[in-house]
Amino acid sequence: MPVLSLLQLLDEPVAAAHGVRLLLWRDDLVNLDLPGNKARKLKYNLLAARQQGHQTLLTFGGAYSNHIAAVAAAGRLQGFRTIGLIRGDEPAAWASLNPTLAQAATDGMALHYLDRTAYRRRAEPEFIAEQLARFGPAYVLPEGGTNELALPGCAELVAEIRQQVDFDALAVAVGTGGTLAGLLSGLAGQQHAVGVVALKNGGFLRAEVDALTQSTTGLTFDNYSLQTDYHFGGYAKYSVELLTFIQQFQARHGVLLDPIYTGKLLFGVLNSIGKGYFRRGSTVVAIHTGGQQAWAGWQERFGSRR
């Protein structure tokens, strides 16, 4: 299992057969207190919150959200109060909180719950104003942490990888499109990026990604693709095939992927290599964006399957 800094060579038969050098960037190891792409998305948002004099962060997410977990942890580490507006019904008692929300509460996040009708309004300015009137002044982070200030932190990853290796393509899991948009900003039209979409019917994400890069760089880029065939039924859907793949990947490489994003990413990348998507002689870097906290909630729902 050769490791060069945060780059791990993945000795996979399908990659060798197609002449592709496949590497894994371990962004999940960069900051163990706040690992992965969530830390990158929050970096400049937290600076802006501090500069604007805010003492509270307010954000939105599902009951098993990596973003909720990350904002709560960031608040604890950097001295912000945090408020999480959670999609779904309020649990009857503390003891019934799932592991993600229990940890967020332990990190100091005040949890409040929105029914699905209200939650659908989460991006509406009027709705946000109502929440600020209810909870007081706060720096508002969108669901998933994707906004214009999220992109520069993700763009920095490109330079970090380039310091370690010359590559032809970067591959990343896609939920809201922010991390991919940040990578495209960092690539600035050079090399190729592949986004493996974790959502069903994720074709709309191209418009989201293009809007984000346009708003931050003034440009849209065509050096990327969205792979939409590896969602395994949709966001956070259960799949024996996917969980078996994750288990086998961990046995081969000693790396734990998560069932929401990075498991789908590596499955999609290896499948794409097998289909000849990457030219022979290419160096492809897949990015492990963290998310292992999701396993506790997954096991609570489905039992231990890894």
TrEMBL record:
Keywords of this protein's UniProt record, alphabetized?
A: Pyridoxal phosphate
Ranges for domain Tryptophan synthase beta chain-like PALP come to: 15-290
Organism domain of life: Bacteria
* Cofactors that this protein relies on: pyridoxal 5'-phosphate
The Swiss-Prot or TrEMBL record describes its family as follows: Belongs to the ACC deaminase/D-cysteine desulfhydrase family.
> What's this protein's name?
1-aminocyclopropane-1-carboxylate deaminase/D-cysteine desulfhydrase
Q: Which organism is it from?
A: Hymenobacter negativus
